[in-house]
Amino acid sequence: MEEGPYKCVRDGNGTVNRVIRMGTRKSQLARIQTDYVAEKLKTLYPDVHLEIGEKTIHSLSLSQFSSREKSLFTKELENALERNEVDLVVHSLKDLPTTLPNGFTIGAVLQRESPHDAVVLHPKNSGLTLDTLPDGSVIGTSSLRRAAQLKKRFPHLEFKDIRGNLNTRLKKLDEKEDYAAIILAAAGLKRMGWEARVSQVLGPEDCMYAVGQGALAVEVRARDCDILEMVSTLHHSETVLRCIAERAFLRRLEGGCSVPVAVNTEVKDSVLSLTGAVYSLDGADSLKEAMEISVDPGNKLESAADIQHVGVTAHNVPQCAQVAAEKLGVDLADLLLSKGAMEILTTARKLNDAR
Ligand code: DPM
Predict the structure, then answer these.
(1) What is the pTM assigned to this prediction?
(2) Where is the Porphobilinogen deaminase C-terminal domain positioned along the sequence (predicted)?
(3) Which atom from ligand 1 is nearest to the alpha carbon of 260?
(4) Which atom of ligand 1 is nearest to the CA of 209?
């Protein structure tokens, strides 16, 4: 067996192949997302041996790895990355902070699924919409962003927290009478194979989406050039640029994953447009603005090579376009800040902490 920093296996022909170990969380969605990325890598690199926790793709099995698989959360997964126990971790991009801990980077942002939110109705309400649900109907969501926008837009509805993973939430909806409907990301529902439960997809006029929603991200060690190069082929340029702009916007607003901040992005004819908004908890107060920038590779903005943009490393996406995308996010946030966004967010944060 080959010595060196990486674990390798020899195949039947005596060729030495690197083993890539993928960490995953236990939830069904996390597994599905990890498997999806594994399949892509397997197609692109048929010679690489992939391991997912205890599960093995290809021929190799490593028993000592399985015991560590238990329940790794984002932090634990990063610890496992740091300790060289795994080489890459798949996340929903929207769950990754805009500033990653030192030593980590997002090495791939895959083509985005629908970034929109969707309504899942209690079966007894089949055929209804948020508009036509009776007065006082209770909608389940723990997202401040969704609640703020929908409270304003549909004042006849009530909103209550709902917790747990997707399986738990759907069970709580169907098997009890607590909620008339719940709101979930269309992308997660699709990955779980539950598209048939989507009764309504919410467009930007009803509910703008969360930063990074619908995109998968592959987190790796920033110094691990081999793995970085390997996963970089998974990058989807347009998604990368949209998500850099969105993450730069959220970072500048000092927003975490639980602030009422929403976005909408689009790339058309090499122009990236970003709409961003902040809301008070009841949606009564809000600020919304839009800006755009050219991401044409011919549009030379000063760029430094080898730098991360809001945590993303993408050598194979034009640097100047990434610089432009980040600038767009920062500029739009600054515009909102100049109009009082920080006050709205600070109040929302305080009220939410006091809940
Ligand atoms: C974050 C939020 C939620 C998740 C907040 C938000 C939703 C929480 C809730 C940051 N992460 O969206 O405003 O509804 O109470 C999450 C989901 C997915 C990734 C599930 C969902 C799947 C979709 C994707 C939870 N994180 O939002 O329905 O990959 O974007």
Answers:
(1) 0.91
(2) 241-295
(3) 13
(4) 12
Question: 94: Cβ below 6 Å to ligand 1?
Answer: yes
| Distance of alpha carbon 274 from alpha carbon 252, whole angstroms | 14
Measured CA to CA, the distance from residue 147 to residue 270 in angstroms comes to: 33
Whether 348 contacts 259, CB under 8 Å: yes
Q: Please report the pLDDT score of residue 73 as a whole number.
A: 53
For residue 169 and ligand 1, the question of a CB distance below 6 A is answered with no
CA distance linking residue 159 with residue 145, whole number of Å = 12
Give me 54's structure tokens: 């205890």
Cα separations (Å) of 19 from 46, 106, 107, 157, 284?
Answer: 12, 20, 18, 52, 53
Angle (nearest 5°) at CA 179 between 175 and 181: 100
The string over 4-23, giving b where at least 16 C-beta atoms fall within 10 Å of a residue's C-beta and e elsewhere, is eebbebeeeeeeebbbbbbb
Residue minimizing CA distance to atom 24 of ligand 1 = 214
Ligand 1 lined by 145 (C-beta under 6 Å): yes
Q: How far is Cα 268 from Cα 249, in angstroms, rounded to an integer? A: 20
* Cα distance from N-terminal residue to C-terminal residue, the chain: 57
Q: Which atom of ligand 1 is nearest to the CA of 166?
A: 20
Instruction: Summarize pLDDT for 273-330 with one digit per residue, the tens.
Output: 999 999 999 999 999 999 999 999 776 666 555 589 999 999 999 999 999 999 999 9
- pLDDT, tens digit (0-9, with 9 covering 90-100), for 255-281: 776 789 999 999 999 999 999 999 999
Residue 57, pLDDT score: 32
Non-local (6+) Cβ contacts of 87 within 8 A are 20, 21, 22, 81, 220, 221, 224, 227
Show which residues are catalytic: 95
